[in-house]
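During data preparation, we tokenized the protein backbone, and the record follows.
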Amino acid sequence: MGKLALAWTAVFVVALPRDAAAEETGPRPDLAASAERFVARLEQGDFAGAAKDFDQTMARAMPPEKLEGAWKSIVAQSGPLKRRARVDVVKVPKYDVAVVTCEFEKSTLDVKVVYDAEGKVTGLWFAPSESAAKCKPPPYADQDSFEEKEIRFGSWLWALPGTLAIPRGDGPFPAVVLVHGSGPNDRDETIGPNKPFRDLAWGLASQGIAVFRYEKRTKKHALKLAAIRESVTVKEETIDDALAAVALLRKTDRIDPHRVFLLGHSLGGMLVPRIAARDPEIAGFILLAATSRPLEDVILAQRRWLFLLDGELSEQEQTTLQQIEEQVARVKDPQLSPQTPAADLPLGIHPAYWLDLRGYDPPEAAKHLRRPLLVLHGQRDYQVTMEDFDRWRAALSARDHVQFKLYPKCNHLFVEGAGQSRPAEYQTPGNVARPVVDDIAHWIGEQR
């Protein structure tokens, strides 16, 4: 599910771009020390002390016992914390964001602590460090064969920056819009040092296919979305911007308006039937590691799988799983109300989000699509598993113009590896496997 497990850790989650505009007063320097103390308390196991500066919303959403569970889950995935490498404080309107770069045994993470004007913690986010080692360009990318253009698109309130990789020449070229997985992804869908969307864009552009990738709304406009978080659904998170990107490409020079495709990864793939229903003229769809089960079930399965990596469940892990099971049950409860507290639901996501997805069965909805589909899956994917792939295959095998491909060595990012895939693997630089890029390019070439 992309970054879902980390991105919605708290009720008020902020993923701020590094170029966020600073106010004249600048960030408060004392918050750097405050954020370091916060992380130190987590490391020492003083979760009550770490939570003492939470505002009321955070205190309800992330009491000390939940904070303890979140921290222990991170340590289980990344190993012990070795050192706090640096602290940066970014000033944005109404808030300060302290970013503590933490080097764990197996990976480097940024702990982002959001402070309000009174110095209270109003948001918390754990994510792969933006300062992690850079991933090398994929060997199959011929960077002399295409050019990249920066394009801004969308409505004025939610305008987004993006990058169009377009082959050199007169065209017209087929084109693909890349739709992110869950969480506040950048245009490259960066996870640790890996950039799967950049790899796909450069690889496909090298084979004569234009590719548009863009900053996700939950990253570029995190603060605006936080202000309306009680009403946000997948429409605002993903669907509206995907449709706007498709419309943009149809009007772009050197692109064939009748051959604009859409590729959805993880959550983006899960939402393909909804996107297709809004724009039946999209030429075809590529689903990469697309979720086919209810989102709340995937969240629970992911957490259980991570807890069992060491072969046993601790008492704290059992308690956390029980809490998540109760939250999942509330999502499925026919009596779920728009007034249900977000803290009582998975990942602190507000009820509007869950109510919007109620009854949505992606494979069943995809049966009614009339456009070609290519469904790709990595067999080593522990986030979106073979159960999801099998549900797509069972629902769509009898439908015309659907192809399925399985990659035994690939993980959720479609990077090849060996053995059981683990979270720490995402901190190892790699590229999307060449067969994946070649198969997508070949399939697009067949759609005439």
